[in-house]
TrEMBL record:
CDD domains: LDH_1 (cd05293), UEV_TSG101-like (cd11685)
Annotated organism of origin: Todus mexicanus
Function noted in UniProt: Interconverts simultaneously and stereospecifically pyruvate and lactate with concomitant interconversion of NADH and NAD(+).
GO MF term (any one): L-lactate dehydrogenase (NAD+) activity
Protein name as catalogued: UEVLD enzyme
UniProt cross-references to PROSITE patterns, sorted A to Z: UEV (PS51322)
Taxonomic classification: Eukaryota, Metazoa, Chordata, Craniata, Vertebrata
Amino acid sequence: QYKFRDLTIEELKNVNKTYPNFTFSMNTYTFKDGSQKDLLNFSGTVPVKYGNSYNIPIRLWILDSHPFAPPICFLKPTANMGISVGKHVDAHGRIYLPYLQNWSHPKSTVIGLIKEMIAKFEEELPLYSLSSSDAARQSELLAYIAKITEGETDMKPKSKIGGGKNEGCFNKITVVGAGDLGIACVLALAAKGPAEKVVLLDISEGAAKGGTMDLEIFALPNVEISKDFAASADSKVVILTVNSLGDAQTYLDVIQSNVDLFRGIIPAISHYSQNTVLLVASHPVEVMTYVSWKLSAFPKSRVIGVGANLDTERFQYILANLLKAEVLAKDAWIIGEHGEDKVPSWTSCNLVANQTEATAARNSREMVANRAMEVLKGKGQRSWSVGLSVADLTDSILKDKRKVHSVATLAKGCCGINSEVFLSLPCVLGAAGVIEMVKLEENPLVQEKLQSSAGSIHDLQQQLKL
């Protein structure tokens, strides 16, 4: 069934000469769409020096169009090994490398691929040793993702791992990603204090190490730093701050790199915390919230993007305090797409009774709003400011405040939008996530802008490989 059988056999002979410990077999591989094929594959260990010498277990699947298509690569951790999710490895052990993305026969070979794999693993070790108690959990997790590592990535969790004793009575938050934004979120959450425990899930070995080291040195109370997804078990809110640092060249490549990263994170998170609210702060927030919703299979109410919450809070503050339009500020919102295409809108249409006066009042309101938007343009979104916004949203969810925030939510059915896209809209937030969407004032121009944003986001989503 291999189209280029002689070329494939010749290359695998070379692999066997270089790595005689590899064992070859023919097994059934299940693709994302559920289709299956019997494929050649080989398993073994590759030597990696990371201070000490390690033998990293891997498994490579050879597609039937080889050598014109790259292998599909996985780590094969034992029960006492944990996966260090990072730049080149997801939580299921799937391996992603520039060599695979740029695969081109005859320049690319399996031997060359393994050499790059070793080089990348020496920069960022993909596995770590587990304690005996963690190893027991790992065994259960490995059983859960067994089919995923065979190529199935659309599985739904069937059972929960981790102690469920605190479920329903223990306010625990997990922040995924120990970059600047992740650490800013931890500090803001610690300051606001909505949770009894905050877990910072550090999924990289690279640049983030310095920040987590400082957190460990100064030991914030109730903050735990971990590299194990099991530490996130039974979180009420999981905050996603990670962004891929890959070598992507185009904007679509950057987003696809983020999608690939989330493919390894979301199933593991939703497995350990089946009733959590996912709060997405990764970029681009609308697309990554959609990706999180699809990968988690959670109801739309429990997958929320931070969206325009920060811009709305600033907008209302500028109106009330700088422009002295406190009455307008209460009903003012920034909605739509995060960034340059955001739109000011209102939830109150009861300006005045007389139509002529209503038109004048609306024009006056729009003039004030335009001035506020000009002031807003000069305000950047640094990590600490986004962290404060995230803490504000988390506080509303954990304390079931039923406060209205402008957050990215599924916009299908609103403002004439028929596609599955997430846009920022005023929503009531509580313990279950989005409780209801607040009705906006009807404005054809606003609806046109929202529909335009929805169209461009949907077109982008269609080009992604989930």
